[in-house]
Amino acid sequence: MSDSISLYFNDVLVNPTLPSYMSENEYIASNLHTQDFSVALIGIPDKNNSANTVRNHLYTLFGNFTTIKLRDLGNLKKGKSEKEMALALEHVVQELAEKSIPCIVFGGEQWLTTAIFKGITEVQPNVGVCFIDSKIDVGDMQESSCSHSFITQLATHHTLDNIDIVGAQQYYYTERQRQYIREHKGDITRLSEARKDIFKLEPILRNADLISIDMSAVRLSDAPAAKFPCSNGFTGEEVCQLARFAGYADKTKALVISAWDCINDHQHHTSRLVAETIWHFLDGVDKREQESPNEDNPIYTKLVVQSDIHDDGIIFYHNTQTDRWWIEIPTLSGLRIYPCHTNDYQALCNNEIPAIWLRYLYK
Q1: So what's the pLDDT on residue 2?
Q2: C-alpha–C-alpha distance, residues 211 and 117, integer Å
Q3: Tens digit of each residue's pLDDT (9 = 90 or more) over 149-181
Q4: pLDDT tens profile 19-62
Q5: Domain end: 233, 263, 286, which one?
Q6: Would residue 153 count as lying in a domain?
Q7: What is the C-alpha to C-alpha distance for residues 155 and 151, in angstroms, rounded to an integer?
Q8: By the 8 A CB rule, do 343 and 200 touch?
Q9: CA separation, residue 333 to residues 67, 211, 240, 323 (Å)
Q10: Residues near 47 by Cβ (< 8 Å), separated by ≥ 6?
Q11: Is residue 282 domain-shared with residue 305, that is, in the same domain?
Q12: Alpha-carbon distance 123 to 98, whole Å?
């Protein structure tokens, strides 16, 4: 990491108590790197040191990953204003993205996702975003630092490729907000639909460069310190599974976990869950396959489905080793390959129109 980036951070000041039943070199605390790292941790400061509380639990988890080297960059300095901190975060994420180093940003408010998005856009022309949230943060306010309206600015950014909101609860958003997302390259998966089969969400996360988790997406009993606590939501196990999907996806440049406060966290219940969510993302990154579907690669099977919905055959790619699927869809910018689910292939075989086809066709 360059010296200019180091200036943005305060050193980590935590002293975790490592369990004595295993040697210390088995834990993440003993497996952090300062050089040649491949994944970065970035803490966002708040008055109650929520990020450091998470570290105390994260560092005591086993860290014997086989392919990644983890570095904790520390906590971002607050600066003189929120805007100054956002600009610093944007710069840091840009440099990491240029080096193909995924990062995990944890703590603070979800509006900082906008700064991370802008950092990634400096490196690539099109960016896909997935929000795991109970609500839709679209409002009348235009300030990017407002946690309840920041998506309004992000959705109109010229580099936005697609936007997904997963886990939204209908009584927390209006029809106008839902329609706004649909009109801005977006789609919404309600909580009830998402929880029917968590594995159907994997292609959505595989198509995102940036994934942002608001802890309000997790039910109150599993995340009592969420700043917008909800009686319903994903379970702790489910949010960890979603984080692993995100880590396993080759495209993912950043994972954001935000919107909790450890002052309301009895027995560090939420902080422990955030630490475990980070661990599952790391485990996913550790097992990445660097998939690039094409018919010349022997691990992919190319399948052409003839269907009444399109004059030409519709092409699918299936990785026989990971059992992941992709579909080729004509868009305004030409043919593009999107991640999909085996159910999309089966639907077309039955001459039914899968939702992914309608979402991207000629858009």
Answers
A1: 56
A2: 10
A3: 899 989 999 999 999 999 999 999 999 999 999
A4: 888 999 999 999 999 889 999 999 999 999 999 999 999 999 99
A5: 286
A6: yes
A7: 6
A8: yes
A9: 36, 24, 35, 28
A10: none
A11: no
A12: 6
Give me the amino acid identity at 321.
Answer: Q
One-letter amino acid identity for 54? V
Contact 342, 325 (CB under 8 A): yes
What band does 358 get if pLDDT is binned at 50, 70 and 90? confident
Q: Which of 352, 289, 357 is nearest to 324 (CA)?
A: 289
> For a pLDDT cut of 90, what percent of the chain falls above it?
76
Can you read off the two tokens belonging to residue 88? Answer: 């610093």
Alpha helices in the chain (DSSP H): 3-6, 50-58, 82-98, 113-121, 151-155, 175-183, 191-196, 202-206, 236-248, 269-286, 342-349, 355-360
Q: Are 196 and 319 found together in one domain?
A: no
Lookup: tokens for 235: 């379970």
The answer as to whether 123 is a domain residue is yes
Rounded to two decimals, the pTM is 0.95
Structure-block tokens of residue 97: 């993205």
Structure tokens at 303: 């399948």
Residues pairing with 41 in the sheet: 72, 104
Question: What is the residue-averaged pLDDT of the chain?
Answer: 92
pLDDT, residue 144, reads 45
The set of residues, in sequence order, having a beta carbon less than 8 Å from that of 116 and lying 6+ positions away, is: 89, 90, 93, 105, 210, 212, 254, 256
